[in-house]
Amino acid sequence: MIETGFDTDLSLKVCARRMNYSPNYLTKVFRKETGVNFSDYLSEYRMNMAKQWLLETDMKIFEIAEKLKYNTPANFIRYFRKLGGTTPGQYRDSFLKK
């Protein structure tokens, strides 16, 4: 569900409902199987997609932020920098200049 719905308003509750499980049960199973909680896994998956799009497409940063369901491009840029130590623009530039 994450691979196909990462660019939607996906949540643990939505997944649990689709699978006919309680959110509490799915939380426990998800953490046991992946070693991380659902929201961290989803955020990491979205960041990996953002990195891929930054390198493989000419999408603007605001378009990537929008597609990944960030409220504002600034939130996306802050989170990207928090995880990777660089802004999305700097990330793209560092690979394109090589």
Describe this structure in words.
The protein is an all-alpha fold and 98 residues long. It is built from 7 helices and no strands. It has helices at residues 2-5, 12-19, 23-34, 38-56, 61-67, 73-84, 88-96. The longest helix has 19 residues, at 38-56. The radius of gyration is 15 Å and the shape is elongated. The model has no long low-confidence stretch (mean pLDDT 92).
Uncertain runs with pLDDT below 50, 5 residues or more? none
Look at the helices and sheets and give the structural class. Answer: mainly alpha
| Succession of helices and strands | HHHHHHH
3D shape: elongated
Structure summary, number of beta strands:
0
The DSSP helix count reads 7
Oligomerization state: single chain
Biggest sheet details = none
Beta content comes to: under 5%
Write down the Rg: 15 Å
Which helices and strands appear, and what pairs or packs with what?
Elements: H1 2-5, H2 12-19, H3 23-34, H4 38-56, H5 61-67, H6 73-84, H7 88-96
Keyword list:
mainly alpha; 72% helix; 0% strand; 7 helices; 98 residues; single chain
Question: Could you give a short description of this structure?
Answer:
With 98 residues, this protein is mainly alpha-helical.
